[in-house]
Amino acid sequence: MTLAASRLPSHPALSPRLPHLPNLAQRQTNMTSSKTIVLEFGGGLEALFSDAKSLSVTPPADIQSLGKLITWVRDHLITARHDMFVSGDALRPGVLVLVNDVDWELEDTVNYRFAGGDRIAFISTLHGG
Amino acid sequence: MVRNCSACGTQRASVKRPKTGAAVCKECFYQQFETEIHDTITSHSLFNRGDRVAIGASGGKDSTVLAYVLSLLNKRHDYGLDLFLLSVDEGITGYRDDSLEAVHKNKVEYDLPLLVVDYRTLYGWTMDEIVSVIGKKSNCTFCGVFRRQALDRGAVQLKADKVATGHNADDMAETVLLNFLRGDFPRLSRCVDAVTGRDSALPRVKPFKYTYEKEIVMYAYFKKLHYFATECIYSPNAYRGYARQFLKDLEAVRPSAILDVIRSAEQLTFPPPGSKDTAMPVQKTCERCGYITSQRLCKACVLTDSLNNGTAADVNRKSRPGRVKNQSEAQVGHAVKAKE
Ligand SMILES: [Zn+2]
Ligand SMILES: [Zn+2]
Fold it and tell me: Where is region (Disordered) located (chain B) (predicted)?
Protein backbone atom coordinates (compact mmCIF):
# COMPACT_ATOMS: atom_id res chain seq x y z
CA MET A 1 0.00 0.00 0.00
CA THR A 2 1.34 3.35 -1.01
CA LEU A 3 1.04 6.20 1.39
CA ALA A 4 -1.40 8.80 0.23
CA ALA A 5 1.21 11.39 1.08
CA SER A 6 3.43 10.14 -1.72
CA ARG A 7 0.74 11.01 -4.25
CA LEU A 8 -0.43 14.23 -2.82
CA PRO A 9 2.19 16.63 -4.17
CA SER A 10 0.66 16.45 -7.62
CA HIS A 11 -2.65 17.58 -6.17
CA PRO A 12 -1.92 20.91 -4.51
CA ALA A 13 -5.56 21.47 -3.68
CA LEU A 14 -5.45 18.59 -1.24
CA SER A 15 -2.14 19.35 0.39
CA PRO A 16 -3.67 21.14 3.37
CA ARG A 17 -4.91 17.74 4.50
CA LEU A 18 -1.41 16.41 4.71
CA PRO A 19 -0.77 17.46 8.34
CA HIS A 20 -3.83 15.49 9.42
CA LEU A 21 -2.28 12.21 8.34
CA PRO A 22 0.26 11.82 11.10
CA ASN A 23 1.32 8.24 10.47
CA LEU A 24 0.50 5.04 8.70
CA ALA A 25 -1.42 3.55 11.63
CA GLN A 26 -3.71 6.53 11.77
CA ARG A 27 -4.29 6.29 8.05
CA GLN A 28 -5.36 2.66 8.35
CA THR A 29 -8.23 3.72 10.59
CA ASN A 30 -9.03 6.57 8.23
CA MET A 31 -9.60 4.04 5.51
CA THR A 32 -13.11 3.48 6.77
CA SER A 33 -14.05 7.06 5.98
CA SER A 34 -15.06 8.10 2.49
CA LYS A 35 -12.52 9.65 0.16
CA THR A 36 -12.81 12.20 -2.57
CA ILE A 37 -11.21 11.18 -5.86
CA VAL A 38 -11.14 12.52 -9.38
CA LEU A 39 -12.44 10.38 -12.23
CA GLU A 40 -11.43 11.10 -15.81
CA PHE A 41 -13.12 9.75 -18.91
CA GLY A 42 -11.71 9.51 -22.41
CA GLY A 43 -11.86 7.74 -25.73
CA GLY A 44 -15.60 8.29 -26.05
CA LEU A 45 -16.58 7.26 -22.50
CA GLU A 46 -17.35 10.92 -21.77
CA ALA A 47 -20.61 10.36 -23.59
CA LEU A 48 -21.73 7.99 -20.81
CA PHE A 49 -21.21 10.68 -18.21
CA SER A 50 -23.14 13.54 -19.79
CA ASP A 51 -19.98 14.53 -21.70
CA ALA A 52 -18.02 15.15 -18.50
CA LYS A 53 -14.27 14.68 -19.02
CA SER A 54 -13.66 14.63 -15.31
CA LEU A 55 -15.72 14.35 -12.13
CA SER A 56 -14.80 14.80 -8.51
CA VAL A 57 -16.64 12.15 -6.50
CA THR A 58 -16.85 10.85 -2.95
CA PRO A 59 -18.03 7.23 -2.97
CA PRO A 60 -19.45 5.79 0.28
CA ALA A 61 -16.90 4.56 2.81
CA ASP A 62 -17.39 0.89 2.00
CA ILE A 63 -16.20 1.48 -1.59
CA GLN A 64 -12.42 1.20 -1.28
CA SER A 65 -11.12 -0.92 -4.14
CA LEU A 66 -11.13 -0.13 -7.84
CA GLY A 67 -13.25 -3.23 -8.41
CA LYS A 68 -15.99 -1.90 -6.16
CA LEU A 69 -15.56 1.57 -7.53
CA ILE A 70 -16.32 0.29 -11.02
CA THR A 71 -19.66 -1.21 -10.00
CA TRP A 72 -20.45 1.89 -8.00
CA VAL A 73 -19.73 4.09 -11.03
CA ARG A 74 -21.90 1.79 -13.15
CA ASP A 75 -24.80 2.04 -10.70
CA HIS A 76 -24.58 5.68 -9.74
CA LEU A 77 -22.88 7.76 -12.39
CA ILE A 78 -23.57 6.31 -15.81
CA THR A 79 -26.59 7.68 -17.55
CA ALA A 80 -26.63 5.53 -20.72
CA ARG A 81 -24.94 2.70 -22.60
CA HIS A 82 -23.61 0.87 -19.56
CA ASP A 83 -22.27 -1.87 -21.82
CA MET A 84 -19.57 0.50 -23.11
CA PHE A 85 -18.12 0.58 -19.60
CA VAL A 86 -18.79 -2.79 -17.98
CA SER A 87 -19.73 -6.29 -18.89
CA GLY A 88 -21.54 -7.55 -15.82
CA ASP A 89 -19.55 -6.55 -12.76
CA ALA A 90 -16.25 -6.37 -14.62
CA LEU A 91 -14.79 -3.52 -16.55
CA ARG A 92 -15.29 -4.06 -20.25
CA PRO A 93 -12.13 -5.38 -21.90
CA GLY A 94 -10.69 -2.61 -24.04
CA VAL A 95 -11.22 0.08 -21.40
CA LEU A 96 -7.87 1.24 -20.01
CA VAL A 97 -7.47 2.41 -16.43
CA LEU A 98 -4.72 4.65 -15.12
CA VAL A 99 -4.25 5.54 -11.48
CA ASN A 100 -2.37 8.82 -11.18
CA ASP A 101 -0.97 8.20 -14.67
CA VAL A 102 0.06 4.63 -13.88
CA ASP A 103 -1.40 1.66 -15.77
CA TRP A 104 -3.67 -0.13 -13.30
CA GLU A 105 -2.14 -3.41 -14.42
CA LEU A 106 0.88 -2.29 -12.39
CA GLU A 107 -1.36 -1.53 -9.42
CA ASP A 108 -3.08 -4.88 -8.89
CA THR A 109 -6.08 -3.75 -11.01
CA VAL A 110 -9.41 -4.30 -9.20
CA ASN A 111 -7.69 -4.86 -5.86
CA TYR A 112 -6.07 -1.44 -5.80
CA ARG A 113 -7.30 0.51 -2.77
CA PHE A 114 -7.60 4.11 -3.72
CA ALA A 115 -6.61 7.05 -1.54
CA GLY A 116 -8.13 10.48 -1.23
CA GLY A 117 -6.91 12.70 -4.07
CA ASP A 118 -6.27 9.83 -6.46
CA ARG A 119 -6.87 10.62 -10.12
CA ILE A 120 -8.35 7.63 -11.90
CA ALA A 121 -8.70 7.71 -15.67
CA PHE A 122 -10.95 5.39 -17.68
CA ILE A 123 -10.20 5.46 -21.40
CA SER A 124 -11.95 3.40 -24.01
CA THR A 125 -9.90 2.01 -26.88
CA LEU A 126 -13.00 0.72 -28.59
CA HIS A 127 -13.95 3.67 -30.73
CA GLY A 128 -12.75 3.93 -34.30
CA GLY A 129 -9.50 5.55 -35.16
CA MET B 1 3.36 -1.01 -4.63
CA VAL B 2 5.66 1.22 -6.64
CA ARG B 3 7.59 -0.50 -9.39
CA ASN B 4 10.59 0.92 -11.11
CA CYS B 5 11.06 0.94 -14.85
CA SER B 6 12.62 -2.26 -16.16
CA ALA B 7 14.54 -0.31 -18.80
CA CYS B 8 16.13 2.62 -16.97
CA GLY B 9 15.71 1.30 -13.44
CA THR B 10 15.32 4.75 -11.97
CA GLN B 11 11.89 6.14 -12.90
CA ARG B 12 8.58 4.87 -11.68
CA ALA B 13 6.95 2.45 -14.14
CA SER B 14 3.78 3.78 -15.78
CA VAL B 15 2.92 1.24 -18.47
CA LYS B 16 2.73 -2.52 -18.54
CA ARG B 17 3.62 -3.37 -22.12
CA PRO B 18 1.21 -5.94 -23.55
CA LYS B 19 3.78 -7.48 -25.91
CA THR B 20 6.30 -8.32 -23.24
CA GLY B 21 4.72 -7.69 -19.85
CA ALA B 22 7.58 -5.29 -19.12
CA ALA B 23 6.86 -2.39 -16.78
CA VAL B 24 8.34 0.84 -18.13
CA CYS B 25 8.32 4.52 -17.26
CA LYS B 26 6.79 7.12 -19.56
CA GLU B 27 10.05 8.20 -21.17
CA CYS B 28 11.22 4.65 -21.83
CA PHE B 29 7.74 3.79 -23.12
CA TYR B 30 7.90 6.65 -25.64
CA GLN B 31 11.33 5.56 -26.71
CA GLN B 32 10.44 1.87 -27.15
CA PHE B 33 7.11 2.65 -28.83
CA GLU B 34 8.71 4.99 -31.36
CA THR B 35 11.69 2.71 -31.96
CA GLU B 36 9.46 -0.27 -32.70
CA ILE B 37 7.54 1.72 -35.28
CA HIS B 38 10.81 2.87 -36.81
CA ASP B 39 11.87 -0.81 -36.94
CA THR B 40 8.64 -1.77 -38.73
CA ILE B 41 9.22 1.02 -41.23
CA THR B 42 12.79 0.02 -41.96
CA SER B 43 12.45 -3.76 -41.84
CA HIS B 44 9.47 -3.71 -44.25
CA SER B 45 10.99 -0.93 -46.39
CA LEU B 46 7.76 1.03 -46.11
CA PHE B 47 9.24 4.25 -47.46
CA ASN B 48 11.90 5.45 -49.85
CA ARG B 49 13.75 8.73 -49.48
CA GLY B 50 11.86 11.46 -51.29
CA ASP B 51 8.47 9.71 -51.05
CA ARG B 52 5.41 11.88 -50.83
CA VAL B 53 3.24 10.18 -48.22
CA ALA B 54 -0.44 10.87 -47.69
CA ILE B 55 -1.44 10.00 -44.13
CA GLY B 56 -5.06 8.89 -44.08
CA ALA B 57 -6.35 11.13 -41.30
CA SER B 58 -9.74 10.58 -39.71
CA GLY B 59 -9.23 12.62 -36.56
CA GLY B 60 -9.39 9.38 -34.55
CA LYS B 61 -6.75 7.99 -32.20
CA ASP B 62 -4.76 5.87 -34.65
CA SER B 63 -4.34 8.41 -37.41
CA THR B 64 -3.69 11.21 -34.93
CA VAL B 65 -0.86 9.26 -33.31
CA LEU B 66 0.36 8.12 -36.74
CA ALA B 67 0.65 11.70 -37.97
CA TYR B 68 2.49 12.68 -34.81
CA VAL B 69 4.90 9.74 -34.82
CA LEU B 70 5.63 9.86 -38.56
CA SER B 71 6.47 13.57 -38.32
CA LEU B 72 8.72 12.82 -35.37
CA LEU B 73 10.51 9.85 -36.96
CA ASN B 74 10.86 11.64 -40.28
CA LYS B 75 12.85 14.33 -38.51
CA ARG B 76 14.67 12.09 -36.07
CA HIS B 77 15.87 9.56 -38.63
CA ASP B 78 15.93 11.86 -41.65
CA TYR B 79 13.65 9.69 -43.80
CA GLY B 80 13.41 12.52 -46.30
CA LEU B 81 9.62 12.17 -46.64
CA ASP B 82 7.09 14.80 -47.63
CA LEU B 83 4.12 14.16 -45.35
CA PHE B 84 0.53 15.21 -45.99
CA LEU B 85 -2.74 14.74 -44.15
CA LEU B 86 -5.53 13.37 -46.30
CA SER B 87 -9.10 13.22 -45.02
CA VAL B 88 -12.31 12.00 -46.53
CA ASP B 89 -15.51 13.88 -45.80
CA GLU B 90 -18.33 11.40 -46.26
CA GLY B 91 -20.94 14.02 -45.55
CA ILE B 92 -22.24 12.65 -42.25
CA THR B 93 -23.64 15.51 -40.22
CA GLY B 94 -22.54 15.57 -36.60
CA TYR B 95 -19.98 12.82 -37.07
CA ARG B 96 -17.54 13.85 -39.73
CA ASP B 97 -17.89 17.53 -38.91
CA ASP B 98 -16.46 16.97 -35.46
CA SER B 99 -13.73 14.59 -36.53
CA LEU B 100 -12.61 16.91 -39.33
CA GLU B 101 -12.22 19.59 -36.72
CA ALA B 102 -9.74 17.27 -34.99
CA VAL B 103 -7.86 16.82 -38.28
CA HIS B 104 -7.67 20.58 -38.76
CA LYS B 105 -6.06 20.80 -35.32
CA ASN B 106 -3.52 18.14 -36.32
CA LYS B 107 -2.71 20.14 -39.40
CA VAL B 108 -1.82 23.15 -37.29
CA GLU B 109 -0.11 21.28 -34.46
CA TYR B 110 2.04 19.05 -36.66
CA ASP B 111 2.45 21.64 -39.39
CA LEU B 112 1.37 19.28 -42.17
CA PRO B 113 -0.54 20.26 -45.32
CA LEU B 114 -4.11 18.93 -45.35
CA LEU B 115 -6.36 17.89 -48.22
CA VAL B 116 -10.00 17.02 -47.64
CA VAL B 117 -11.83 15.17 -50.42
CA ASP B 118 -15.57 14.76 -50.15
CA TYR B 119 -18.17 12.34 -51.41
CA ARG B 120 -20.43 15.04 -52.79
CA THR B 121 -17.76 16.39 -55.11
CA LEU B 122 -16.52 12.94 -56.16
CA TYR B 123 -19.81 11.07 -56.45
CA GLY B 124 -22.56 13.67 -56.26
CA TRP B 125 -23.97 12.12 -53.09
CA THR B 126 -23.26 12.57 -49.37
CA MET B 127 -23.66 9.64 -46.99
CA ASP B 128 -26.59 11.44 -45.36
CA GLU B 129 -28.32 11.51 -48.76
CA ILE B 130 -27.40 7.91 -49.53
CA VAL B 131 -28.81 6.74 -46.20
CA SER B 132 -32.00 8.69 -46.83
CA VAL B 133 -32.44 6.61 -50.01
CA ILE B 134 -31.22 3.16 -49.02
CA GLY B 135 -31.70 3.18 -45.24
CA LYS B 136 -29.17 2.25 -42.62
CA LYS B 137 -28.72 -1.37 -43.58
CA SER B 138 -25.72 -2.07 -45.81
CA ASN B 139 -24.96 1.61 -46.27
CA CYS B 140 -21.43 0.62 -45.25
CA THR B 141 -21.20 -1.11 -48.63
CA PHE B 142 -21.41 2.26 -50.33
CA CYS B 143 -19.26 4.03 -47.81
CA GLY B 144 -16.48 1.44 -47.96
CA VAL B 145 -16.22 1.49 -51.75
CA PHE B 146 -16.44 5.26 -51.89
CA ARG B 147 -13.93 5.87 -49.13
CA ARG B 148 -11.30 3.59 -50.58
CA GLN B 149 -11.52 5.29 -53.94
CA ALA B 150 -11.74 8.77 -52.38
CA LEU B 151 -8.49 8.17 -50.50
CA ASP B 152 -6.82 7.09 -53.71
CA ARG B 153 -8.13 10.08 -55.63
CA GLY B 154 -7.01 12.45 -52.89
CA ALA B 155 -3.58 10.84 -52.84
CA VAL B 156 -3.29 11.25 -56.60
CA GLN B 157 -4.24 14.93 -56.24
CA LEU B 158 -1.43 15.26 -53.72
CA LYS B 159 0.91 13.51 -56.17
CA ALA B 160 1.58 11.07 -53.36
CA ASP B 161 3.62 7.91 -53.82
CA LYS B 162 1.96 6.10 -50.93
CA VAL B 163 -0.89 6.21 -48.51
CA ALA B 164 -0.08 5.48 -44.86
CA THR B 165 -2.95 4.23 -42.72
CA GLY B 166 -3.33 3.87 -38.96
CA HIS B 167 -4.30 0.18 -38.91
CA ASN B 168 -2.92 -1.16 -35.65
CA ALA B 169 -2.12 -4.68 -34.46
CA ASP B 170 -5.61 -5.13 -32.98
CA ASP B 171 -7.16 -4.13 -36.32
CA MET B 172 -4.90 -6.58 -38.14
CA ALA B 173 -5.73 -9.45 -35.80
CA GLU B 174 -9.42 -8.66 -36.02
CA THR B 175 -9.23 -8.73 -39.81
CA VAL B 176 -7.45 -12.09 -39.70
CA LEU B 177 -10.26 -13.49 -37.55
CA LEU B 178 -12.97 -12.12 -39.83
CA ASN B 179 -11.33 -13.48 -42.97
CA PHE B 180 -10.91 -16.78 -41.19
CA LEU B 181 -14.57 -16.89 -40.17
CA ARG B 182 -15.61 -16.05 -43.73
CA GLY B 183 -13.31 -18.65 -45.19
CA ASP B 184 -11.70 -15.99 -47.37
CA PHE B 185 -8.34 -17.64 -47.78
CA PRO B 186 -6.80 -15.31 -50.37
CA ARG B 187 -7.48 -12.32 -48.14
CA LEU B 188 -6.46 -14.20 -45.02
CA SER B 189 -2.99 -14.59 -46.40
CA ARG B 190 -2.46 -11.00 -47.48
CA CYS B 191 -4.48 -8.99 -44.96
CA VAL B 192 -1.48 -8.82 -42.63
CA ASP B 193 0.91 -7.45 -45.23
CA ALA B 194 2.58 -4.22 -44.15
CA VAL B 195 2.23 -3.01 -47.74
CA THR B 196 -1.06 -3.67 -49.54
CA GLY B 197 -2.88 -2.15 -52.44
CA ARG B 198 -3.27 -4.59 -55.30
CA ASP B 199 -6.79 -3.17 -55.67
CA SER B 200 -5.90 0.47 -55.09
CA ALA B 201 -4.16 3.02 -57.26
CA LEU B 202 -1.34 3.49 -54.76
CA PRO B 203 0.42 1.26 -52.22
CA ARG B 204 -1.00 1.42 -48.70
CA VAL B 205 1.50 1.11 -45.90
CA LYS B 206 0.79 0.24 -42.28
CA PRO B 207 3.49 1.44 -39.90
CA PHE B 208 1.35 0.39 -36.88
CA LYS B 209 0.89 -3.21 -37.95
CA TYR B 210 2.65 -4.47 -34.81
CA THR B 211 1.55 -1.62 -32.56
CA TYR B 212 -1.00 -2.45 -29.88
CA GLU B 213 -4.09 -0.33 -29.64
CA LYS B 214 -3.59 -0.09 -25.88
CA GLU B 215 -0.21 1.53 -26.40
CA ILE B 216 -1.49 3.93 -29.04
CA VAL B 217 -4.15 5.12 -26.62
CA MET B 218 -1.65 5.32 -23.71
CA TYR B 219 0.76 7.26 -25.89
CA ALA B 220 -1.93 9.72 -26.93
CA TYR B 221 -3.03 10.09 -23.30
CA PHE B 222 0.43 10.80 -21.91
CA LYS B 223 1.40 13.05 -24.81
CA LYS B 224 -1.96 14.82 -24.62
CA LEU B 225 -2.64 14.30 -28.33
CA HIS B 226 -6.23 15.23 -28.96
CA TYR B 227 -8.37 12.99 -31.06
CA PHE B 228 -12.00 12.41 -31.77
CA ALA B 229 -13.67 9.25 -30.50
CA THR B 230 -17.16 8.43 -31.65
CA GLU B 231 -18.70 5.60 -33.58
CA CYS B 232 -20.01 6.37 -37.00
CA ILE B 233 -23.72 7.00 -36.50
CA TYR B 234 -24.62 4.77 -39.44
CA SER B 235 -22.42 1.81 -38.65
CA PRO B 236 -22.98 -0.35 -35.59
CA ASN B 237 -21.10 -3.05 -37.54
CA ALA B 238 -22.12 -5.85 -35.22
CA TYR B 239 -20.23 -8.67 -36.88
CA ARG B 240 -16.89 -6.90 -36.61
CA GLY B 241 -17.84 -5.95 -33.07
CA TYR B 242 -18.04 -9.60 -32.03
CA ALA B 243 -14.57 -10.33 -33.42
CA ARG B 244 -13.28 -7.25 -31.63
CA GLN B 245 -14.78 -8.25 -28.33
CA PHE B 246 -13.44 -11.78 -28.68
CA LEU B 247 -9.93 -10.44 -29.25
CA LYS B 248 -10.15 -8.09 -26.29
CA ASP B 249 -11.22 -11.03 -24.13
CA LEU B 250 -8.29 -13.07 -25.45
CA GLU B 251 -5.92 -10.19 -24.84
CA ALA B 252 -7.08 -9.93 -21.23
CA VAL B 253 -6.06 -13.55 -20.65
CA ARG B 254 -2.95 -13.56 -22.79
CA PRO B 255 -1.76 -10.19 -24.09
CA SER B 256 0.52 -11.71 -26.72
CA ALA B 257 -2.52 -13.27 -28.44
CA ILE B 258 -2.89 -10.31 -30.77
CA LEU B 259 0.63 -10.60 -32.13
CA ASP B 260 0.31 -14.38 -32.23
CA VAL B 261 -2.71 -14.11 -34.53
CA ILE B 262 -0.82 -11.75 -36.84
CA ARG B 263 2.29 -13.93 -36.89
CA SER B 264 0.17 -16.99 -37.67
CA ALA B 265 -1.46 -15.31 -40.66
CA GLU B 266 1.97 -14.20 -41.88
CA GLN B 267 2.91 -17.85 -42.25
CA LEU B 268 0.15 -18.43 -44.79
CA THR B 269 0.73 -18.09 -48.51
CA PHE B 270 -1.87 -18.06 -51.23
CA PRO B 271 -1.93 -19.56 -53.72
CA PRO B 272 -0.04 -22.48 -52.18
CA PRO B 273 3.58 -22.64 -53.32
CA GLY B 274 3.89 -24.50 -56.62
CA SER B 275 0.27 -24.05 -57.72
CA LYS B 276 -0.84 -21.74 -60.52
CA ASP B 277 -1.98 -18.27 -59.60
CA THR B 278 -5.47 -18.54 -61.05
CA ALA B 279 -7.51 -16.90 -58.34
CA MET B 280 -6.33 -13.35 -58.77
CA PRO B 281 -8.44 -11.39 -61.27
CA VAL B 282 -6.72 -9.38 -63.98
CA GLN B 283 -6.69 -5.67 -63.18
CA LYS B 284 -8.03 -3.23 -65.77
CA THR B 285 -9.18 0.36 -65.60
CA CYS B 286 -12.77 1.54 -65.30
CA GLU B 287 -14.18 2.56 -68.69
CA ARG B 288 -15.81 5.60 -67.19
CA CYS B 289 -13.52 6.99 -64.51
CA GLY B 290 -10.22 5.23 -65.09
CA TYR B 291 -10.02 3.76 -61.58
CA ILE B 292 -8.41 0.34 -61.15
CA THR B 293 -10.96 -2.50 -61.40
CA SER B 294 -11.33 -6.10 -62.52
CA GLN B 295 -14.67 -5.33 -64.24
CA ARG B 296 -15.77 -3.01 -67.04
CA LEU B 297 -16.87 -0.40 -64.51
CA CYS B 298 -15.38 0.11 -61.07
CA LYS B 299 -17.48 -0.54 -57.98
CA ALA B 300 -17.86 3.15 -57.19
CA CYS B 301 -19.27 3.83 -60.69
CA VAL B 302 -21.66 0.87 -60.41
CA LEU B 303 -22.89 2.07 -57.04
CA THR B 304 -23.18 5.69 -58.19
CA ASP B 305 -25.24 4.51 -61.17
CA SER B 306 -27.54 2.60 -58.86
CA LEU B 307 -28.07 5.75 -56.78
CA ASN B 308 -28.67 7.91 -59.83
CA ASN B 309 -31.13 5.58 -61.55
CA GLY B 310 -33.00 4.72 -58.38
CA THR B 311 -32.02 1.06 -58.12
CA ALA B 312 -29.73 1.51 -55.12
CA ALA B 313 -32.29 0.01 -52.79
CA ASP B 314 -32.10 -3.16 -54.94
CA VAL B 315 -28.33 -3.23 -54.76
CA ASN B 316 -28.78 -2.96 -51.05
CA ARG B 317 -31.22 -5.86 -50.94
CA LYS B 318 -29.10 -8.05 -53.19
CA SER B 319 -26.02 -7.44 -51.13
CA ARG B 320 -27.62 -9.16 -48.19
CA PRO B 321 -26.53 -12.68 -47.26
CA GLY B 322 -26.09 -15.01 -50.18
CA ARG B 323 -25.01 -12.33 -52.59
CA VAL B 324 -22.57 -10.66 -50.32
CA LYS B 325 -19.45 -12.17 -51.74
CA ASN B 326 -19.70 -11.04 -55.32
CA GLN B 327 -21.71 -7.95 -54.99
CA SER B 328 -20.06 -5.91 -52.37
CA GLU B 329 -16.84 -7.43 -51.30
CA ALA B 330 -15.37 -4.07 -50.72
CA GLN B 331 -16.75 -3.83 -47.32
CA VAL B 332 -19.03 -6.56 -46.29
CA GLY B 333 -16.62 -9.16 -47.49
CA HIS B 334 -13.55 -7.07 -47.68
CA ALA B 335 -12.41 -7.26 -44.15
CA VAL B 336 -10.28 -4.21 -43.98
CA LYS B 337 -11.40 -1.77 -41.39
CA ALA B 338 -13.10 1.25 -42.78
CA LYS B 339 -10.43 3.61 -41.73
CA GLU B 340 -8.47 6.27 -43.45
ZN1 LIG C 1 12.53 4.09 -17.77
ZN1 LIG D 1 -15.22 4.07 -62.26
Answer: 313-340
